[in-house]
Amino acid sequence: FINLLAGSINSQRILINIHTVWYTVFIVFGIASSIWAYNFEAALEPIQKMVQILAITFCLQVYVKNERDFERLLDLLVLTGVIMSSYILIETPFSQWSAGFLGSVTGYNTNSVGIFLSMVVIISAYKGLVLNKKRYLILTAAFMFMVIMTSSRKSLFISILGLISLVVLNTQKKHYILHVVLIFGLAGLLMFSIFNVPYLYNTVGFRLASMAKFFTEDTTADNSLALRTYFINIGSKFYLEHPIIGIGLNNFASYLRQYRSVTFYAHNNYIELASGLGTIGLLIYYWFYLYLFVKLLKQLLRGEKTALLFFSFVCLVIVFDYSMVTYYSSMIQTLIVISYIAVCINDAKYKKRIKEDII
Q1: pLDDT by residue (tens digit) across 298-317?
Q2: pLDDT tier at 14 (50, 70, 90 boundaries)?
């Protein structure tokens, strides 16, 4: 913010970028939805947090001016992971480390803790595998241990798929085939250990087993997945009833009371936005994801190293939005803005190289 003030005083202008315009328009549409919302108060409930996210993400873009600032920002995220993990382990009795759902001492949902830890798993792996800073691989292993202890299935899958994508997409790596075989071997060994080592099975293995049973044998084997399936079905019904502008931001839970005596959000970003803001809201929100996907894919094909990391991140968010609500998640929105910053830095470098080649 200090940088912002200093820059505006010197240049007499403040640069508003695509990301800021995107999230601002989304917030404005969310506020406007309170006019036709089923529950007026519910529509305005997430707005304060979204405005906070807008301010923080804007200031992050002001802070990062070059590659050095960008790498410092990634290191700060990893450091945050170290501090949070240390706090969790210190505050949780050792006897409860393997009891599952590690991280509740933070006051946050353990899924949220796990999602952030999965982010720093991938960032530290990027530092170690792509930038060849081998000491970060120790942190990668430590963060992966923490992810498993949170019992979060999403976080485990995000971590594993993120690590695999980093290796598979890094086609210029020396001994590429060996690294691909190795990462798939390690992923297989980890899954085998989760199912066969009692310490690991008691944390997340039993949840993976119930998930497998849910999809193959018994749809009552996993209550969490059964509820999520119900939310998808009923949310699709809400969307078909109000396909253009929806029933109002954050109104899924309120509208659900007509059908069940429970209050739950959709646990699915697509369904939450489709039911709440309709087709218009979906387009306003997800066009920016498509923009990042296309830009990062082009940069990946150009050989930009940071594109390896953030193309993986954007793809993972797009996939796992099917099982979590992220439009007001400070962690996911921080990840999205950092991905945008990476795009801007890579484009600036590319334009500079083209200009130097012409000269």
Answers
A1: 999 999 999 999 999 999 99
A2: low
The answer to whether 357 and 82 have CB atoms below 8 angstroms apart is no
pLDDT (tens digit, 9 = 90+) per residue, 256-283? 998 887 788 899 999 999 999 999 999 9
260: left (phi over 0), alpha (psi -120 to 50) or beta: beta
Q: pLDDT value at position 15?
A: 65
Q: What is the DSSP letter of 35?
A: G
> What are the tokens at 29?
């549409």
What are the C-alpha distances in Å from 303 to residues 152, 173, 176, 307, 352? 33, 11, 15, 8, 15
Q: Which two tokens stand for residue 265?
A: 């959000």
Q: How many CB atoms lie within 10 A of CB 315?
A: 19
What is the Cα gyration radius of the chain? 22
Cα–Cα distance measured from residue 269 to residue 324, given in angstroms and rounded to the nearest whole number:
6
How many helices, marked H, and strands, marked E, lie in the chain? 16, 0
CA distances from 114 to 145, 149, 150, 181, 297 (A): 11, 9, 6, 27, 27
Mean pLDDT over the full length of the chain: 92
**What is the token pair recorded at 129?**
């595998």
3-state DSSP percent of the chain in helix, strand and coil, to 5: 75, 0, 25
Query: To 10 degrees, the CA torsion angle through 34, 37, 41, 46?
Result: -70
Q: What is the pLDDT of residues 130-172, one digit of tens each?
A: 999 999 999 999 999 999 999 999 999 999 999 999 999 999 8
Q: Global pTM?
A: 0.93
Q: Which long-range contacts (C-beta less than 8 Å, at least 24 apart) are formed by 265-268? A: 265/325, 266/231, 266/232, 266/235, 266/325, 267/227, 267/228, 267/231, 267/323, 267/324, 267/325, 268/228, 268/231, 268/232, 268/235, 268/321, 268/322, 268/323, 268/324, 268/325
Distances (CA, A) of 68 to 72, 269, 345: 6, 34, 11
**CB neighbour burial string for 34-60, b if at least 16 within 10 angstroms, e if fewer:** beebbbeebbbbbbeebeebbeebbeb
